[in-house]
Amino acid sequence: MTKPLDAAAKAAALRGLNDRSREVLRHIVDAYVDTGAPVGSRTLSRSLGLGLSPATIRNVMADLEDLGLLFAPHTSAGRLPTDMGLRLFVDGLLEIGNLTQDERAHIEGQVAAEGRSLSEVLEEASETISGLSRCAGLVVAPKLSDPLKHIEFVSLGPGRALVVLISVSGVVENRIIDVPAGLPASSLVEASNYLSARLTGRTLEEAHTDILKELEQQRAELDQLTSRVIERGLASWGGSQGGKSGALILRGQSQLLEDVTALEDLERIRQLFALLETKDALIRLLDLTGGAEGVQIFIGAENELFGLAGCSMVIAPYSNSQQKVVGAIGVIGPTRIDYARIIPMVDYTAKVIGRLVG
Q1: Domain 148-242 in this protein, CATH class
Q2: Distances in whole angstroms, Cα of residue 235 to Cα of each of 76, 176, 194, 210, 228
Q3: Which of 41, 93, 217, 330 could form a disulfide with 54, with the two C-beta atoms 3.0–4.6 Å apart?
Q4: Which pTM value belongs to this model?
Q5: Whole-angstrom Cα distance, residue 111 to residue 123?
Q6: Alpha carbon distance 274, 309 (integer Å)
Q7: Distance between CA 213 and CA 278 in Å, rounded?
Q8: Are the beta carbons of 232 and 267 closer than 8 angstroms?
Q9: How many other C-beta atoms lie within 10 A of the C-beta of residue 261?
Q10: CB atoms inside a 10 Å sphere around CB 243
Q11: What is the CATH number of domain 101-143+246-357?
């Protein structure tokens, strides 16, 4: 298992490479990202344009292999980058691209459209980044563990109501719930007043169980319809949204599976998706992003979540108005994803979501 290179190790590794070695590594990685196939010395000799013979390039490739940056999948095959080689390339040799104006406008238009709830924004962000990157897009939704500031029920017509929940940090969540047909507007007002008086300054976790117990004791004092609105409104935030791990939105799994041909790799990736659905994995994803600013890149085995699947993850946190990390967005793809294009894409999408959350 390779580990991420720290700044000193990366600097030392880069210092150990001359210009010729860097160009050979760069071309092998570029070819790997483009085709996934090993690159031979004769092919490199023609494409480098440096007047180097295949024999000279074989010597350079052998040196890079000794450093653990390349490997040969078969005895007579060309070379592929190792996870360490990809890490060195991404950290020291990669030239990050810029999003086009059309790509920025597309992200803004899809993610920041007006009239959407936070959950709808995050679902659209996952879909959008999956489509643009041709990878699986993932979003770790806000945990809604902050103390609450306000809750309100708004009628949407017969049998439906909108629940608006606002935390003290400014995170707003909207949920649509079913309510009894013929519910009077006064019941929605009573439910809003009842919960607002009891939720302010408390987390939903703290309030959820206590209020439901209180409802049982005071049911005679509350209108039956009002009680049902309160119960259903609270139930909307039960389960994962009320817990510590938040919720995972994962889109575009087929994009990743289409890029894998070996049956054993397919099975590994299926196991990866199953693992990602666990709350423990969500907590670890947030832990990976919460300790540092900007985009984080995890390549292959250096991240235990993806070590067996042979995948890479590019992920960035987004923050609320108090600059507290409340979630993360990113993509999962094969280790040969187009890092130069995807890194700025993830970074920009995280900034758009952070602006909306803030």
Answers
A1: alpha beta
A2: 61, 11, 16, 13, 10
A3: 41
A4: 0.68
A5: 9
A6: 12
A7: 29
A8: no
A9: 9
A10: 17
A11: 3.30.450.40
Q: Which CATH class is domain 7-93?
A: mainly alpha
Region for residue 258 given its phi and psi (left: phi exceeds 0; alpha: psi -120 to 50; beta: otherwise): alpha
Cα–Cα distance for residue pair 181/164, rounded to 1 Å: 20
Closest CA to 331 of 143, 131, 142: 131
DSSP-derived secondary structure letter, 182: T
Any residues with CB less than 8 A from the CB of 306 and at least 6 apart, and which?
A: 272, 298, 300, 312, 313, 332
Nearest-angstrom CA–CA distance, 274 and 254 = 14
Sheet with 136-140: list strands edge to edge.
248-251, 136-140, 325-334, 311-319, 296-299
φ, ψ of residue 126 to 5 degrees: the values are: -65, -45
Residues in the chain: 358
List Cα–Cα distances, 187 to 2, 6, 217, in angstroms: 60, 59, 19
Main-chain dihedrals φ then ψ at residue 321, nearest 5 degrees: -65, -20
What string of pLDDT tens digits covers the 358 residues of the chain? 344 555 566 556 666 788 889 999 999 999 998 888 888 888 888 888 777 888 899 899 999 998 889 998 876 678 999 988 999 999 888 888 888 899 899 998 888 877 677 778 888 888 899 888 888 888 877 655 667 788 888 888 887 888 887 877 666 777 777 777 777 888 888 888 877 777 777 776 676 667 767 766 666 556 666 776 767 666 655 444 434 445 667 777 766 666 555 555 566 666 666 666 554 555 566 566 655 667 888 887 776 666 656 788 898 988 877 777 778 888 888 888 899 999 999 999 999 988 887 6
Where is 30: in which H helix or E strand?
A: helix 19-35
Q: Where are the domains of the chain?
A: 7-93, 101-143+246-357, 148-242
